[in-house]
Batch of 2 targets.
Target 1
Amino acid sequence: MPGNEVVILRIGHRPERDQRVTTHVGLTARALGAQGMFLATPDKGVVQSIRDVADRWGGDFFCLDNVKWRSCIRDWKAQGGTVVHLTMYGLNLPDVIDDVKAHGKILVIVGAEKVPGEIYGLADYNIAVTAQPHSEISSLALFLDHFFSGQEFRNEFPGAHIRIIHSRAGKRTEEM
Amino acid sequence: MPGNEVVILRIGHRPERDQRVTTHVGLTARALGAQGMFLATPDKGVVQSIRDVADRWGGDFFCLDNVKWRSCIRDWKAQGGTVVHLTMYGLNLPDVIDDVKAHGKILVIVGAEKVPGEIYGLADYNIAVTAQPHSEISSLALFLDHFFSGQEFRNEFPGAHIRIIHSRAGKRTEEM
């Protein structure tokens, strides 16, 4: 998305149970216009799954594991970036999204079940997507769609080896 | 959501690997204004997880497992309902959502990895959320948010035993 930089920081990931959900978080981030994902746990399996999709489907989404979350947040802020933490306890998305849009460089923290309390204080914005329990995947999707105002539905992914041709029924793809 | 009825039909669920993702599908549906979910596989574990959330957090979301998908679709259509199938091969969401909004009673088919080809023909709308691979959870979230035009962020869930009070930082809840 020109002029905006959004990167995900996934914390609390447990390789033994969160691989699929974290992969969905990364793919959602990529499909909806984020530039990359930092994973605050070592997990080469997740990194490889996301890189495989990015290689085949285009774009230059990055995924790095074993990132230290405290220094990641500190460095992001030192570079003038803004930190958003998605949590069901935060302010409701429609009430804050216009404020957030005034910032161009956003780190979105996406936690698994338990998040260190410190994160709430480090974040510039704690944002809830409704006040109901659902999924960090749906929360991230709605945050990105509202942040990019729906423009991300038209994103291009240069260098793809495969592309879908939208169809009324059936499956049409083009190999490049 | 007054005047609209949206129910999910989850197909292709495999209890041995999809429990968490299907639970996220159901909770996303509930949080974002759908009335219930039919699960086309027997899986009491998923049903119980979703019912536990609904009991505690309010509203009257239903979840039924072991539903036969062909008769579910046929009955929905016989009652004048519209069938939407979320698939990365379909028409792009922003291009069709206004048409879909003209209908009040929507069955949203959410598949796991493989979906029977027949579904494409049975659906009134095959809808893609971008043309990139990501997650059925994010696809459903974006479909519901666009269908309900963001009004679902203000939904009430009567009969809740717990409620979140949106906060700038920290966790505030109210027990009822």
Note: The mean pLDDT of chain A is 96.
Target 2
Amino acid sequence: MTSIPTQTLTEALHWRYATKKFDPTKKIPAETWAALQQSLVLAPSSYGLEPWKFVIVDDPATREKISAAAYGQRQPVDCSHLVVFAGRKNMDAKDVEKFITHTAAVRGLPKDSLKGYQDTIEGSVERARKGGYLDVWNSRQVYIALGVYLASAALLGVDTCPMEGFDPAKVDEILGLSAKGYGALVLGPAGYRAADDKYAGLAKVRYPAQDVFIQA
Amino acid sequence: MTSIPTQTLTEALHWRYATKKFDPTKKIPAETWAALQQSLVLAPSSYGLEPWKFVIVDDPATREKISAAAYGQRQPVDCSHLVVFAGRKNMDAKDVEKFITHTAAVRGLPKDSLKGYQDTIEGSVERARKGGYLDVWNSRQVYIALGVYLASAALLGVDTCPMEGFDPAKVDEILGLSAKGYGALVLGPAGYRAADDKYAGLAKVRYPAQDVFIQA
């Protein structure tokens, strides 16, 4: 495995910003987009349950509807590729069964050999349900995928804009997500910044290291 | 800005796995660790509020206590660098005031010019508090940082293991986080896999693309 130089990483993460205005004429090349999709496929999640769907919205009319549900913000329309990050709602034992069946198949194991693991995961799911944090737990996993995607995009020279400013119920309705058992959490438009996006030139605001790190 | 080849990204993300056994003799070089810390500093968050603390735990005795709070798992002890990702609890108008003051200073703006922005953010914070999802909202931001960190580490050839399997109340107590207004969410040990970590060789389990992507 070839590592990248540290400077390449920090430069890319400095270059990244929440792009307010995408250039609608610039499209992400197919090979680059395929790699970004792979970053989502390969994102880690608790137990590997992948409690998510990534909706890739190409249809212009659907993008306009999502823009309207995002109070008229234009990134969902002007970006090259629009991903709606959705989280599993009300996960249950069937999700775990599906995961165990898939794990056994990928690893060439008898399913029975994973029974203890299945019980452990089901226990975690039921504890989360009884504790009232099942959907919260799964929503956090989606944000891991978001972080992986944003960092990956920056390293590939692709601009993004994580967006929470939208009406989730409307986006769920537009995309038919509720019926599938998922709920929209965050939008991840990707593409290329417009030459006149004034936000690109602003000084990056971050607290100094001593404010965010605690040594123990 | 120099982009990396798509293959470099996908290889690194394939190489990454949740390391169960770290080699305690291998330490992350200072320059590499500094870049990983930068990935945390530069991680995006809603409005840029950075509702987090990253606790870097070096003290061996403290690491042992955290291992005990994680049901005896050894990664917190054996890793090179241990980060405890903590989220802001019960954020209020003072957090927003601090953020606006800092933004004005960094961008050389009169603070008054950001009054509308400040009101918008305060409105979001108060809506989240009344809606009962304030801490959830902030916890999700921490998982963006986690995702950026895990991807960054992989690209730098550093192993990690995101861990939610611990007693948060105990870790909060060990690190004195509650008094600071933060709560531990996830552990992020980093270092290098032991030569005999059997998990390194297992086939990666991921649902096929058609299971996680929806085209719309």
Note: The mean pLDDT of chain A is 98.
